[in-house]
Amino acid sequence: MISNPNSTSQSNGLFRQIVPALRAVEGMHLLVKFTHYPGHAEDIVRGLTRDDYDVIIAVGGDGTVNEIVNGLLGPADEDIPSPNEVPALAVIPTGSANVFVRALGFPNTPVEATHVLARMLERDLRRTIYLGTWNERWFAVNAGFGMDADVLARVDRAREQGFSATPLRYLNVAIRAWLRARRNPPQITVHAESRLGQTLHKKDFPLLFTSNTNPWTFLGPLPVVTNPRNSFDEGLALFGLEKLSGVRGVIGLLHLFGADKHGWLKRLVKEKTLGFDDAKHVELDCHTPQRFQADGESEGTFRHVTLTSVADAIEVYAPQDRRQVAQRSVQEVLRDFIRLR
Prior knowledge:
Helix content is 32%, strand content 31%. The protein has helices at residues 12-23, 40-45, 62-73, 99-103, 110-123, 147-160, 167-183, 246-256, 264-269, 330-340, and strands at 2-3, 33-34, 55-60, 88-93, 126-134, 137-139, 142-145, 188-194, 199-205, 207-211, 217-219, 222-224, 236-241, 273-294, 297-317. The strands form three sheets. Strands 5, 6, 7, 8, 9, 10, 13, 14 and 15 form a nine-stranded antiparallel sheet that branches. It has a four-stranded parallel sheet with strand order 2-1-3-4. Helix 1 packs parallel to helix 5 and helix 6 crosses helix 7 (167-183).
């Protein structure tokens, strides 16, 4: 078990609840390691095989998952090990968004997720999933240029100053990034090829997201759904808006955040919206260097990035197949959240 002690919801009290639940699994022998610097989880698992450990349990957020995936699989431009050659991956969510583990069907609270995971370990319920690559690196959830990368960089800056990464802070930073992007939009050109041979070539998008699962992310309890068909069982999905300003820009934003259950808003902005599913290869180009993010971590500035989809890249413990995960509207999520509160 690899734990990131700097993730949002970790505490000594939490470990007094999750460790006994895991150790109660018959045959479990648990070794716990804590990370001490960015990239440490990647260093810990680098070179490990299934002969060393059956499973790596990540206690952290999407960034911790990203490090472990990159450590286990190595550079994406070299020989990739088969899923049964490296330890399987399990996750206990203690980050701020926890997109990866929630998309697999786990609860968002670490104690509840641990009890679900314990049952999965007892029954050995695993599945293989697709992963994405950007240049020689891996990502599990999403990656891209533009506004989302700008948001993450500014939230990281706030965290370095001692502020917590709350959903409200993300929303506040996102609104500011949206206003900046309207004044000085990035110009992203995309060329993509799907697994069925379809191609896409579009120029000068101010907003473009690449995701490996659905939802693309969460705003607290609210799922942000860009490509409803997307999942861990298909290639990459692209979502973009051709315009950020004006009424159609606002409508496109509302559609992005899921306020369009019946598709009425989508019909109004269809000709200005990009949607592309099951991509196996994507080329992204910018006129000027732009911030790039992968799995919620700012990766620096680039002008060109190559993305690919790798089928059946890694084994994960998961409570259900993705086709059993129902898509829920914002109203349904809010209703359940109010009931819980």
